[in-house]
Each structure stands twice: as C-alpha cells, then as structure tokens.
Design a protein that fits this description.
It is built from four helices and three strands, in the order H-H-E-E-E-H-H. The chain is of the alpha+beta class. It has a domain of 72 residues: OB fold (Dihydrolipoamide Acetyltransferase, E2P). Strand 1 and strand 2 form a beta hairpin.
Length: 107
C-alpha cells in the first residue's frame, strides 16, 4: 500500500515525522485547547480550596470550590465544585487546613 507521504518532498516528510512524535495536546494551539473541569476521577490534585458553601442546611452538606494543580500533560483544569465527602476521601490535609484557617469560635 502506498502512503501519501511518499509523494511529499523530503523536507515536508521530515516535518510530518516530527509532528507525529509530538503529543496531540502539544500540537493544539491555545484556542483549540479543550478546557476540562478538575476532578478526583481524573486524578487531579487540589491546589487550593477557594470557598465553601452549605448546600443543604438540614443535612449539613458542604460543597467546596476548588482550584486544581496542573496535570502531568501540562493542562490546567478549571475550578470546580467538590462535595465534602469527596474531599474527606482524597484530600484530608487540605480540608483540615481550610477548616483551621476559616473556623471562628464564639462563646
């Protein structure tokens, strides 16, 4: 079977070979890059908890807005909302630090 690159000039053949070695994420320019929300399912790590809010006052459920660290492929996930239960399973230290910084005691 004949490959179409066989008919390209040598300079363009070398350029195509270089492009094939570069991962697809790096080939995209910034406008084409697809932004994804961060999550523990995608093995993202928490950079910082930005805010917290109570989503159900009766059951005392809390949701956190989280910023994420860059992924191994150098993509920056978008900030996302994470439930308290997920934070307890994956990022206990970050959660405890957030509580220590933001708790206020009244007497």
């Amino acid at each position: 079977m004949v490959d179409e690159s066989d008919f390209l000039p040598p300079r363009l053949q070398r350029q195509r070979q270089k492009e094939e070695r570069v991962p697809a994420v790096q080939r995209r320019n910034k406008q084409e890059a697809i932004q994804e929300y961060g999550s523990f399912e995608k093995e993202d790590r928490v950079k910082k908890i930005l805010s917290a809010r109570i989503i159900n006052k009766d059951k005392r459920k809390i949701q956190f807005q989280v910023s994420w660290k860059k992924r191994k492929n150098n993509m920056q996930p978008l900030d996302s909302l994470v439930k308290n239960e997920e934070m307890l399973m994956h990022e206990q230290d970050t959660l405890i630090n957030y509580y220590e910084q933001h708790l206020t005691f009244t007497s």
